[in-house]
Amino acid sequence: MKPKICYTAAAHLVHQGKILLIKHKKFKQWLGPGGHIDENELAHETAVREFMEETGLQVKIVSAYDDLSGQATGADDLFHPMPFAVNEHWVCRANYEERQKAVEQNLPFIPDKQWSKGCEKHFNFSYLAKLVGPLEIKPAAGESKEVRFFTLEELEGSYRSELASSIFAEVKQAFELAKSFHS
Ligand SMILES: [Zn+2]
Description:
CATH class: Alpha Beta
CATH topology: Nucleoside Triphosphate Pyrophosphohydrolase
Distance between the termini: 49 Å
Order of helices and strands: EEEEHEEHEEHH
Structural class: alpha+beta
CATH architecture: Alpha-Beta Complex
Number of helices: 4
Bound molecules: zinc ion
């Protein structure tokens, strides 16, 4: 039985030499604002929506690499910004194991309380964001209150243990790519 996959999107905003991260309420780790892609939603739209919900900041997504936007032939045929990383990770292995057991024993599956939507693995598109509104951080009700900018030095130093290795790799890549957006 294959794990259930949720598709998610996140964004990294590098602004004035710092990156904006939020402390995830369940993981207790710092990461870029993001979340599940809703039905009929495009991945980069999710990143913009989640960014607003989690930080109060209006961003737009910028393509990480040269894309084919200029070559779209019409309104029915669109190209969209490219993520700079695509990552698959476990969020709740217990849900997978419990669901497997439930199927084998023909019992109802009750998801873990922390992951009550039944999340098992996430397949995440990571985008680069650019600030297009005022710099006033204001998370929506119910979202993590821990939202702040970090320098790369802080993340390499005293905060390193609060970042998953994959997130740390993404953060470094975001800083690198953002250099070309500062013109
Ligand atoms: Zn999920």
